[in-house]
Structures are given as structure tokens and as C-alpha cells.
Amino acid sequence: MQVAKISNFGNPHLGLFARATDRLVSVDISASPKLLSALSVLGAPVLKTTFGGSGLAGIFLAMNSNGAVVPSFCSQLEIDVLKAQGLNVATIADKFSAAGNNIAANDFGAVANPEIPRMVLKRISDCLGVETVQMRIAGYATPGSCVLATNRGFAAHNRASEQELKELHSILRVNGSNCTLNTGVAFVSLGAVANSKGAVFGEACTGFEVGR
Mean pLDDT for the chain? Predict the structure, then answer.
């Protein structure tokens, strides 16, 4: 597995600006050249994207190899860019529009904000092609911010309980553990961009955090 440590114009919270699967890396259209170069360790095509004009792919995009969940305020052009990659696309509205914060997914399963309405949850499951289970992580209703999942494993908020880790293992079908990134930040999806081939960490990550 290849790794890199980098910042995006001095910001180590790379998970704000990019989201990766084994099939595709979506990144802020104005990402730094250093970040764009580092993302090559993920071994997947890099697609510059926006979501309602915002480059915060990690906040507004939840994605696996089957589909992408995006805010309802995305333009048709932004949606078509993702569809052109062969992805199903579903939109989510209102207070759940930050799909990247509200959903964590890999190609085997997904976890979602427990407050998302059932009808919307079904759209998410159909789009991603996996069962989507609603749960809180460490008391937070935003599992996408608390879990960084790939097809090889997951990292979870440092205060996720043993029971929650077991549930995540059952849903995502990979092993995982508690972690922090960027020197103690427990919202791990903000600190790195990863798939089963590699990971790009924020430059503030310690060696211990990278090892975890």
C-alpha cells in the first residue's frame, strides 16, 4: 500500500477536498498541484469536481465504486460529470445535503445518519448498490465524518465503542479500529483520502497515526 503526506495550500485536512474509491478520485477543482500529484498513489483516475460550485468533495460527496450521493443543489452539469464515469447518482436535500458527512461507504456496505428519512435511505442504498444501515458513531449522527472506509479496512472516531466497531465490521465487511489523524483529530475522514491501493495523509499526521 502506497502512502503520502501532504497539505492542500497549507491545509492538512485533505478529506475536505477529496474523496476516493478504487475506481475514482474526486477532488476540488482548485486543488494544489502538490495534492493532485500525491493522489496518484491511489492508483485511480483523478476527476476535478464541484458541488453547487463548491470544491469540498469530502463534505458534499459520498461515493463507492457503484454510485455517488450528492447535494440536491448540484447543477445538472456537475451530476453529468459523475454519470460520465459510469456512476449512479442520487441527490439528497436540506440538512442532509453534506452527504460526505452523513454517509460512510465502501463497496460492501454503508452507514448513514440515523435521522435520514427511510425513503431517502432507500435511494441511497439503490444508488450505492449496498445495504445502508443507520447508526451513530461515538454519539455523533454524522458517520461520514467519523469513519474512513475502504475495501480493505476502516478507521473510526477515537471514541467509537467496541460494539460500534463490531457493527461497522459487520456492515462494511472489513476490519477496522479507532484512530485519530492530524495530531489528535478524531473526525478521521477529514484527515486522509484513501482507497484499497493507498492513502494520502494530512501533513500534520503523526507516524503513529499513519501506522494505525
Answer: 97
